[in-house]
């Protein structure tokens, strides 16, 4: 009895510890595209509205609803903030855009800031993104520079720790394309790992699926079916074959968490055919993963969406398998304890269900 109470207390404090993280994780990703041609440099920077509102509040009447009129009114401030945070040096000279940036929005909660520099670099280009210092430390920006023919000149993932790119045009023909592809692969592979490790909704969904397992093969089937399913929808969304907006996908992800946790309770921790349920719900979670790449318009100009898509998905899988490898032995060990086993699945499932309900309310009524 004492051990049972101890388990309940531990799980309670585990829930309290997770409380600060009970929200949808911000992608923490933006993009910057530069096109260098004979007329100068055309720049386009893409942010999520969530990032924009962190430095330019748009809800002027504080009613928790940003209208189109409020978005339009904030455009000059958004352009000003971005332009002040960009330093572009061409051949050793700091240059300024010809006019205030043009700001636009889409239906996927993105903001686009476009501006034009009149000069073309003769040999040297240096860009520094100082605005990254005002965003969360984990925020990354994928920068691409290409010529007028659409050929990639440089690609780099910028961050607070490394917010600058330095490009010498005369050395570009000698720069091996393979090294550039390797850097892009590495950037998106790491991004995939970070995304799953901070994706508490995805991790809790996977945990609620695995907590009923007691040995190796059922867990392997669940992980495999989940991997196949979300890889399919990640690819479909990445190639724009299927386009489901995040305001639909995010509540559905919360609903999958609630469903699986309730099934654990109502079927007494012994649900049948769990791999097929995992596959169906994994399709939904794949759209959540895809939002990081698709909604932000991230792609490698030299390789298309294929390389970022593959490396990001691989990073997600590595992170997912790593978490499962740590958690599963603990789950299986707890299932061997007579005092813990009867209450392990119900208690964990109740806590997971509570988190799912919170996310569902947050993503529907409070969004």
Which key phrases capture this entry?
367 residues; alpha+beta; 2 domains; 6-stranded mixed beta sheet; 4-stranded antiparallel beta sheet; 10 helices; 10 strands; disordered N terminus
Structural write-up:
It is elongated, with a radius of gyration of 23 Å. By secondary structure, it is α+β, with helices and mostly antiparallel strands. The longest helix has 30 residues. The strands form 2 sheets. A 6-stranded mixed sheet has the order 5-6-2-1-8-9, sandwiched between helices. The protein has a 4-stranded antiparallel sheet with strand order 4-3-7-10. It has 2 domains: 189 residues; 148 residues, no CATH class. Helices cover 52% and strands 17% of the residues.
What is Rg?
23 Å
- Give average pLDDT, whole number: 83
User: How many domains, as an integer?
Assistant: 2
Uncertain segments are: 1-25
Indicate the overall shape: elongated
Structural class by sheet pairing and helices: alpha+beta
Percent strand: 15-25%
Question: What letter string, H or E per element, gives the SSE order?
Answer: HEEHHEEEEEEEEHHHHHHH
Give me the side-by-side strand order of the main sheet.
Answer: 5-6-2-1-8-9
The helix content, as a percent range, equals 40-55%
Terminal Cα separation, in Å?
Answer: 43 Å
Largest sheet: 6 strands, mixed
Number of helices: 10
The count of strands amounts to 10
